[in-house]
Write a structure and sequence with these properties.
The chain has 506 residues and is mainly α. The chain has 22 helices and two strands. Strand 1 and strand 2 form a beta hairpin. This is Lysophospholipid acyltransferase 2.
Length: 506
């Protein structure tokens, strides 16, 4: 029997469930079924292929083969693009010097992803879920480019030239082909991610991530040691409950309040503006649980396999949030645009920071938002959202640097400031993300025109009236001041040091 027939038969197994759930694309049920299968497999992987029972080679092989099976089950032969993309990037790593490997790898990988996204949007039918293979490719792109930069840092730069985070992430040797494919296409993250560092993944495969570590409280060690290899059962159960609640909220509320209604002529004509604002907030509030469901389930799969351990809390309970992709409460109660972005799609934000923001010499904020737009795809709505996000970020940064300090003198003023910034942040996020949901230019422009582009105009005005120094210049100024203080300290302490050195020599 050919693979195509097997794929059709496997799809029919879930067709009844798909009709019962009233989902538009029946293969989305296959995706959820594969993730649940991956969850069960993760428990088996942790118990029966534990690092103490088997070799890293076996763990790499099993994780890779299971990943390819799930990819073929969900996407058919479109999953071969995962191998082509990974193979091209690995060839660049092998045959290109490490000095420029990261740049070439970045261009090749992102270019191939963009090519696939263009063909998916402008060649294939929008309704073909099987053509939506670019979702996993987006995560693979993050992994490939991150690894290329980590190898470049580890093999070409000195320790003193690396930042603390770069020292930890730096890879000191070229990975083998098996290690590389296992990192990119393992069964835990092949369908929905999230991205993780190569060193963390190798530590998980080899079992070194469970070594006893001092209990930390606010970054300080208290000397207590914890038992290695803690159980993730409690955290997995909590995350599965979060998934169930998120899915229920999305299916019940968002079905009744779709975002597309905000540009409906009859809706805009029959409701006052404050009702439209309230509806937009409820619609976006009920849309986010779809992402909560996917990312939290992916996090639970990694935890069930034993991946994601991040030390211990102050009460001695283990933390399993090393590769978590969101913090729901921090998102819903965010009081700034930056706070929302820092807690939403965390691993993608870290990837953008490591490969673009920290390395871009000119206007890193704008470059980071544009890279995020290119990485997401070719729909015009993505670019409208991220270009708006640039202006939003600059405006909120200006307000925070010029206004916030006036509200910190009393608890009452601080509470008022938090309430105002929470409300404005939620409205700004909803306003910014509408084109991301609508995708097309016409509906997006229609929405902004219905709001008279008021938030755009307010942000431009704030940027002009409340200028603020860039973060990079502030960081350089702080480093300059600290270097001056260090030099003064050395000058003051040098006579004593010279006397001590003479005393030792005598």
């Amino acid at each position: 029997m050919s693979w195509k027939k097997r794929e059709c038969n496997s799809t029919l197994l879930f067709q009844f469930i798909s009709k019962t759930c009233n989902r538009k694309h029946r293969k989305q049920v296959n995706f959820v079924a594969c993730q649940l299968f991956a969850l069960a497999t993760a428990f088996w992987f942790r118990l029966y292929l534990h690092p103490s029972k088997t070799s890293p080679f076996i763990r790499h092989v099993v994780a890779t083969l299971l990943g390819f099976y799930l990819a073929l089950f969900c996407f058919g032969w479109y999953a071969l693009h995962f191998l082509v993309q990974s193979g091209l990037a690995y060839g660049v790593m092998i045959f290109t010097g490490v000095e420029h490997m990261h740049r070439y790898c970045f261009v090749v990988t992102l270019g191939y992803l963009s090519f696939c996204q263009i063909t998916r949007v402008y060649v294939f039918d929008y309704g073909m879920y099987s053509a939506d293979f670019t979702g996993p490719m987006m995560v693979i792109t993050q992994k490939i480019t991150s690894l290329a930069f980590e190898i470049h840092d580890g093999l070409t730069k000195r320790e003193e030239h690396l930042k603390p985070s770069q020292k930890y992430l730096a890879v000191r040797k070229m990975p083998s082909l098996l290690e590389y494919l296992s990192y990119n296409c393992n069964f835990m993250g092949i369908l929905a991610g999230p991205t993780c560092s190569y060193n963390d993944y190798i530590a998980f495969i080899e079992g070194t991530c469970y070594e006893s570590k001092p209990l930390e409280s606010n970054g300080k060690e208290n000397g207590k040691l914890k038992q290695s290899d803690p159980s993730p059962k409690r955290d997995v159960i909590q995350k599965l409950c979060t998934c169930a609640l998120s899915l229920m909220v999305y299916l019940v509320i968002y079905t009744a309040c779709p975002t597309e209604r905000v540009i409906n002529d009859s809706f805009m004509a029959s409701n006052p503006f404050y009702i439209q604002v309230l509806y937009l907030y409820i619609s976006m509030l009920s849309l986010r649980p779809k992402y909560y469901f996917v990312w939290t389930l992916a996090d639970a799969i990694h935890n069930a396999a034993g991946f994601g351990f991040n030390g211990y809390n102050t009460d001695g309970t283990p933390k399993w949030d090393r590769i978590s992709n969101l913090r729901i409460l921090d998102i819903e109660f965010a009081t700034s645009f930056k706070m929302f972005l820092d807690n939403w799609n965390i691993q993608t934000a870290l990837w953008l920071k490591r490969v673009c923001y920290e390395r871009c010499p000119y206007n890193p904020t704008a470059a980071t938002f544009l890279l995020s737009a290119v990485w997401h795809g070719v729909y015009p709505g993505y670019y409208l959202t991220f270009i708006t996000g640039i202006v939003m970020t600059m405006a909120t940064r200006a307000v925070r640097h010029n206004v916030r300090q006036h509200f910190l003198n009393s608890a009452t003023l601080k509470l008022i400031y938090d309430v105002i910034t929470w409300f404005s942040t939620q409205i700004a996020i909803c306003y910014t993300v509408v084109p991301f949901v609508l995708l097309a230019v016409g509906p997006s422009v229609k929405f902004y025109r219905s709001w008279y582009c008021c938030i755009h105009l307010i942000c431009f005005l704030l940027v002009l009236v409340l200028p603020v120094k860039s973060r990079r210049s502030c960081t350089k100024q702080e480093e300059h001041q600290s270097s001056i203080q260090a030099s003064e300290h050395n000058c003051l302490s040098s006579p004593d040091n010279n006397f001590n050195q003479k005393q030792k020599a005598t």
